[in-house]
Amino acid sequence: MTSLETIVALAKRKGFVFPGSDVYGGLAGTWDYGPLGALLKENIKREWWRSMLKPRTRLLGGQIFPLDSAIISSAKVWQSSGHTDHFTDPLVECKKCKHRFRADHVEGTKCPECGGALGESRQFNMMFKTHAGALEDESAVAYLRPETAQGIFINFKNVVDAFHPKLAFGIAQVGKAFRNEITPRNFVFRSREFEQMELEYFYDPKDAGKYFTDIRAMRMQWFLDLGIKKDNLRFHDYAPDELAHYSKATTDIEYRFGLSQDGFSELEGIADRADFDLKNHFSGYRWTGDDFTKSDAGFVPNVIEPSVGLDRAFLAFMMDAYDEDELAGDKRVVLRLHPKLAPITAAVFPLVSNKEPIVAKAQEVFDMLGGEYTVRFDDIGNIGKRYRRQDEIGTPWCVTIDYQTLEDGTVTMRDRDTAKQERVAIIEIASVFREKLL
Ligand code: GAP
After folding, report:
1. How confident is the model at residue 100 (pLDDT cuts 50, 70, 90)?
2. pTM for this model (two decimals)
């Protein structure tokens, strides 16, 4: 199994992820995504949006509307949602060194840092508080959202008024969330600034039970289709006594991150939140026909929420793709990322870097593919070394322009996973990629 340390080292060495505020000694719980990490994240997001917006998803019963709500939000949002009062962790503080620890992470009454006495356990709110505008008083308090979901709930009526959808329908959002985690740990698995991809799927409560199983299956299939090994994923269905008080059903999709005793930890949560959130923000509102208004008649729509951390998905894709094998007696590191996710789709090499017609032809091929795909040009070192560099960052195909290219307009296309090479006409390369990326 791939260790977290291996991934952290590769991520830094190859420009996927760097520690946040690194030149100033770092800021715990923050990470900067480098050029390859930014591309991989974009590709994961694109695949999530595709799965949400494509017709198959609409077969769940309704359309899915994209949303991009503000990160800084009114204190009233979080008062109504329950986060101001309940989004807390129990903390203990060392009386001597003032270090704080999660109460459930320390044993005994002594500080794990300095051995000083620990104080009483107190609740600590995990939201980042700020002030909007020039005043720094209570009236100007605002919060960085700790989840994207509430942005969806508070816009429920706006979307209904603008589009008049029929139930069931969904609103989906991808964006940053912030939590002042006391003990951020395990690389991007638990950080203070991260991204979420959340769908809220609203339905008529008389259809209870109709959508949960489908959404649960659809989300698991998404990970499998993007290449995560079946053995490394599992469902964890919550028992009735594990459920939040408002939830009718909750299932986690867990991945074998190797960070817990049995190896599995939460990757995505899928919850039927009933009418809890809409009631919090729109007390007295009911769904009447196809409208949402203040009324005694009608009902409050229920909601199912699949919520996945983009950074956690990023880590799962990296860990699952990492492999070490041997090619022609040489050890290599290879990142077997799904071609749809790979940061670089193809690398273009001139066989030699000092023969003008070959270099010019390679440049031409590079420009042609660059219009449609993320491609890299590499003319440094021997071809074997160039292959290894691309294998390590997960590039599925390498295209080499050689002497034969000048004669018949074909190149060698080398496959990352099998290391097999085939000759392909230049005019066909883009369509070969297109077919493989369907
Ligand atoms: N709206 C529901 C919600 O936010 P959650 O279980 O708190 O539920 C959902 O978060 C997902 O967000 C988690 O399954 C995880 O993938 C991701 N997540 C939560 N806290 C995180 C953190 N501190 N760092 C990275 N990802 C996190």
Report:
1. confident
2. 0.95
- Could you give the percent of the chain with pLDDT greater than 70? 98
Q: Report the separation in Å between the CA atom of 179 and the middle of ligand 1, taken as the mean of its atom positions.
A: 9
Burial 242-275 (b: 16+ CB within 10 A, else e): eeeeeebbbbbbbbbbbbeeeebbbbbbbbbbbb
Ligand 1 touching residue 147 (CB < 6 A): yes
Ligand 1 atom 18, closest CA:
309
User: Using a 6 Å cutoff on CB, does residue 81 contact ligand 1?
Assistant: no
Q: Which of 303, 285, 305, 283 is nearest to 294 (CA)?
A: 285
Report the DSSP pairing between strands 346-350 and 375-377: parallel
What distance in angstroms lies between residue 259's CA and the mean position of ligand 1's atoms?
A: 16
145 in contact with ligand 1, CB cutoff 6 A: no
Structure confidence at residue 354 as a pLDDT band (50, 70, 90): confident
What are the two backbone dihedrals, phi and then psi, of residue 227, each rounded to the nearest 5 degrees? 95, 0
Asked if pLDDT for residue 58 goes beyond 70, the answer is no
Which burial class, exposed, middle or buried, applies to 157 when counting CB atoms under 10 A from its CB (0-12, 13-18, 19+)? Answer: middle
Find out whether 114 and 97 touch, Cβ atoms under 8 Å: yes
Interval between CA 311 and ligand 1 midpoint (Å) = 10
Whether 247 lines ligand 1, by a CB cut-off of 6 Å, is: no
Asked if 281 contacts 154 with a C-beta cutoff of 8 angstroms, the reply is yes
Report the atom number in ligand 1 closest to the C-alpha of 147. Answer: 4
Q: Is the separation of the CB atoms in 350 and 51 below 8 Å?
A: no
